[in-house]
């Protein structure tokens, strides 16, 4: 009897136990599923609307109207692969988590650059005290204009117009092209809000200050993108983003109350690569039979 029981245990109970443990190890790997962690790194190009910028200092308070600006992406070079310099170009970095199926919450920041275009003619209104600046002094208004020359006047955030943001995204189920889902595409779209951290270079009153950092304002934006997933663990992603930025008070001098402020809109195109980690699958056995 004992021998019969042992044989029964080996051939009936153990295979069933092994099968159950195998099922438990076969966890689903779905980019949209609850418990999925994602990390992405990439680069961007950005564009900005014209804006009216107010500059305030101890000896002046004036506005420049209709100011054009552009980004300053680093030309493709070895800097993109150099561990000591790969953060010099305009880049994006994000860490996200699917807190429920189809919904992702992520945190990260977009490192952009904002540079006033040299040589443009703009309207000026306000005042500059006599003797404060060799070229601009007096009271301005009634449509008076000035040509911006970088050797005399310049405002830029080349070491970073950094948008530190929290993003809520809808992550749709991917469309699979290969067997076992080894290649798939899914669509993401969402909204963001966050803070602006500015590093400002500023030339005026015959001297220049660089990398003056400040928590300068806030941003609101929308985002959409396509994610191309390979072998369920790696992805390439293309994004489009746009929104509003308000530099409430971007410091222009380190030891003074001088600052700049303006509201503008922006648009950006982003290319990223990343990884998916399935740390909390919701269906442990994946292909369990359904009775």
Molecular structure report:
It is built from one helix and 15 strands. By secondary structure, the protein is mostly beta strands. The chain has a single domain (35-278), classed as Lipocalin, CATH 2.40.128. It has an eight-stranded antiparallel beta barrel. The chain is elongated and about 75 Å long.
Describe the structure using short key phrases:
single chain; 291 residues; disordered N terminus; eight-stranded antiparallel beta barrel; Lipocalin; mainly beta; disordered C terminus
The CATH topology turns out to be Lipocalin
Summed up, the domain count is: 1
Which runs of at least 5 residues are low in confidence (pLDDT < 50)? 1-25, 286-291
User: How are the strands of the biggest sheet laid out side by side?
Assistant: 1-5-6-10-12-13-14-15
Please give the count of helices: 1
CATH class: Mainly Beta
- Spell out the helices and strands N to C: HEEEEEEEEEEEEEEE
Assign an overall shape: elongated
What would CATH call the architecture?
Beta Barrel
Structural class: mainly beta
| Strand fraction | over 45%
SS elements, strand count: 15
- Helix amount: under 10%
Tell me the Rg in angstroms. Answer: 27 Å
